[in-house]
Write a structure and sequence with these properties.
Layout lengths: L6 E5 L3 E3 L26 E6 L14 H6 L7 E3 L5 E3 L2 E6 L5 E6 L13 H14 L9 E7 L2 E6 L6 H4 L17 H4 L7 E7 L3 E6 L11 E6 L3 H10 L4 E3 L15 E7 L2 E7 L8 H9 L3 H8 L4 E3 L23 H10 L20 E7 L3 H16 L3 E7 L1 H10 L4 E7 L7 H8 L13 H11 L4 H17 L3 E14 L2 E2 L16 E2 L2
Parallel strand pairs: 3-12, 3-13, 17-18, 17-19
Antiparallel strand pairs: 1-2, 1-14, 4-5, 6-7, 7-9, 8-9, 10-11, 11-12, 13-20, 14-20, 15-19, 15-20, 16-20, 21-22
Helix pairs in contact: 6-8, 11-12, 12-13
């Protein structure tokens, strides 16, 4: 991954300092006790989050992220604070000369939270279970066979897969004990290898995790409660009052809430996230002219810099400028230009015949676009409402439908939308390939907007087996350019990520791949 991350820590309020660094050995340098024990274990931590999952079954939707973020699940490979692929449950790996067989050497002495040893056979069973239950798995790679020999795991793919190690860092491939009662995973949490295990789970309310006594290292906390507080202002107030000690998904507008709160620290990171609107080509938006007019009617600079107070930067390509994949070189053919948008609509036959201020379809019927958004990220509603207002000015009627995140996923999978808001990590494997394939490959099951471009398909197939970084960059730039020429998706912006927390919480870190919230480095000051 070619990354240009900007990271800083705000100490107190608005004051800058060096970001907290996590080292491989952790805090004081003392040798960590084994088996999840810690002489320094102290207190309980409460974290304010937004609702994200209605089940803890990790193969459902994207809910494996919760398992990883909450310190329960671990993967063979993981990402560093700089976004680089580093060892996780696998201490090393190599690829064969024909680039089809990857061999992973697993860490020794790792146990699941139920005490069962993790070995090659257990990892094999876990990965095979993921492929059996998740439609998303084959978007990462398609294997010919998986073999295990003691603490070695061998994955042979049908074609070379350059990003296979990074693929296994996606939380979808977290390692579970597949021999356990997997029917209980949804309500009680999967049996994994992380420093914590699930004690209780109440969808849209809270998840409680406790120290895993079978963990191979130090577990600093007894219990951590992840409390769902959907409203951003309420989440901010809960941190101010001390009801919670950490708040995720607060924004730049919340900075003013903490003036004078010297006990609060704030980290900021230019993220790897893109916010966009999928445009379903199975409906009215099959017309490229309508898609072009839609995008040209979006004043993205005003949305990000004024309405979001600089909490994001204006959108253009599907990959943000934090990754070096040609952002500055790629031309934006559909930059904000409302007059051009009106002319495109007129030339394409979209005219306001009844004088209500909105254009009709070419056959004279009403043209109304249904925009599905979700509630747990407040800035998404701001984007959508602002877009609705902007598009009214060019004669497009957009109706907003607000649903939960879980419902939005169902609507996306069923293709039940004209427009659908999507906030996504674009380098979930350390590289944008899998994100591009999942959303823009014509036969991808996740591509429910019916986007199709033969050149994009060809480039993605080539990208999958290309190991050379410069060639990969060229292909990714070509793919982005094609998507923009097609007006294939409307990119709103690229958000900044902020982390607000009490100074008593030690070892918290913002990662560019935001899979890691609760780690074995997070502790409370005595």
């Amino acid at each position: 991954m070619i990354c240009k991350l900007k990271r800083k820590t705000l100490l107190g309020i608005f004051s800058l300092a060096l970001v907290l660094c996590l080292t491989a050995c952790g805090g004081s340098g003392d040798q960590a006790p084994a088996n999840g024990e810690s002489k320094d274990k102290a207190g309980d931590l409460t974290v304010g989050v937004t609702s994200f999952a209605d089940t803890l079954e990790p193969t459902e939707q994207y809910f494996s992220w919760v398992i990883t973020r909450y310190g329960v699940g671990e993967t063979l490979v993981k990402f560093s604070e700089e976004g680089e692929v580093i060892p996780g449950l696998a201490k090393s790996w190599s690829v064969s000369d024909d680039q089809k067989t990857w061999t992973f050497d697993l860490e020794e002495g790792v146990k699941f939270s139920n005490g069962k040893a993790m070995d090659g056979q257990a990892v094999k069973a876990s990965i095979e279970r993921t492929f059996e239950l998740s439609d998303r798995a084959k978007e990462f790679f398609d294997y010919e066979k998986i073999e295990a020999d003691g603490n070695k795991l061998m994955i042979t793919t049908k074609e070379p897969v350059a990003m296979l190690p990074g693929s296994l860092a996606d939380p979808l491939f977290l390692i579970v004990d597949a021999s356990a009662n997997t029917e209980e995973f949804a309500s009680k949490g999967p049996i994994c290898t992380g420093p914590y295990k699930v004690e209780s789970f109440s969808p849209a309310q809270e998840t409680v995790v406790v120290a895993n006594e079978n963990y191979r290292g130090q577990v600093p906390l007894n219990k951590v409660t992840f409390r769902c507080i959907e409203d951003q202002a309420t989440r901010s107030m809960a941190l101010q009052s001390g009801e919670i000690q950490v708040a995720y998904n607060l924004k730049t507008e919340n900075l003013a809430d903490f003036q004078g709160h010297e006990n609060i620290e704030i980290q900021e990171l230019d993220s790897l996230r893109t916010t966009m609107a999928f445009m379903n080509e199975n409906g009215p938006l099959k017309d490229k002219a309508l898609r072009q007019a839609f995008i040209r009617g979006l004043d993205r600079k005003t949305y990000t810099e004024s309405l979001l107070g600089g909490g994001a930067s204006p959108g253009k390509t599907v990959i943000p400028p934090t990754l070096d994949f040609g952002f500055d070189e790629i031309k934006d053919e559909n930059a904000y230009n409302p007059e051009s948008a009106k002319e495109i609509l007129k030339q394409a036959g979209y005219v306001d015949k009844d004088g209500d201020g909105f254009v009709e379809n070419k056959d004279g019927s009403k043209l109304e676009l249904n925009f599905v958004i979700y509630t747990s990220r407040e800035e998404l509603g701001i984007y959508a409402q602002a877009a609705q207002t902007s598009l009214k000015e060019i004669g497009l009627k957009v109706n907003l439908e607000t649903v939960s995140y879980e419902t939005l996923l169902d609507r996306r999978d069923a293709g039940q939308y004209d427009l659908l808001i999507w906030n996504v990590l674009v380098a979930n494997t350390g590289d944008p390939e899998k994100y591009l394939r999942e959303n823009f490959y014509s036969s991808s099951k996740s591509n429910t907007m019916a986007y199709k471009n033969e050149k994009v398909d060809q480039d993605l197939d080539e990208l999958a087996k290309t190991f050379d970084e410069e060639k990969r960059k060229d292909l990714v730039m070509e793919i982005q350019d094609e998507i923009m020429k097609d007006a294939g998706v409307a990119v709103f912006g690229y958000e900044k990520t902020l982390l607000f927390y009490d100074k008593s919480v030690q070892g918290l870190e913002l990662f560019p791949m935001d899979y890691y919230w609760l780690t074995d480095q997070v502790s409370l000051e005595k």
